[in-house]
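debug: dumping io for the single-chain case to check the tokenizer round-trip. Nothing else runs in this session.
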Amino acid sequence: MLEMATLRRDSEVEAIMEMSEKQIEALGFTEHSRRHAGIVSKWSGEILRALGKDENRIRLAEVAGYLHDIGNCINRKDHAQSGAILAYKIVTRLGMPFSDAAEIMMAIGNHDEQYGQPVSDISSALIIADKADVHKSRVKNTINDVFKANIHDRVNLAAERSFVKVEDEGKTIALHIEIDTAICSVMDYFEIYFGRMQLSRKAAEFLGCRFALVINGVALL
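debug: decoded output
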């Protein structure tokens, strides 16, 4: 089984992730660095663990979560598909069985809301974990006036905390977000995240759960 520590310190992974973040920053997007990768990896594994999946499936979800955005080193467009191929090559080089590597490739190739679909337990956990990471620390643009920031930055700037939790004895996967409504309204959140929440709902249903969105303690979905 590929250890996460081995993956994190691999020089090829480090170089690709550094270049991915360099391109994302140049394009003015929110943070997609090791911080985001680490959170998505952790949450992907936690979702499957809470649902009683075996340790191999959990580890594959963690690996997929850590590598899911490496396609950004090539181009933001179609980064899920290019990243899936890169990830397959990396994990097979590190000794992962081809069948497990193919699971990771499929999950990464389906994580983006433009073309992705929940097609396995791993891909479903990855989708939910990725869409759940909303936080002010992800904003990289220089913001002098928060109310003049673009809506993507404003929504993230308003997010004080977000986390995913499997609730109701495994029947519900809930995304909890705490936002400063003086910076961003709930409607602003839905304006840019509606498609992502729809995909998260599909992913939860694939896992046999319902999806819940809770903002400032109020259940909205």
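debug: round-trip ok. The chain is about 55% helix and 10% strand.
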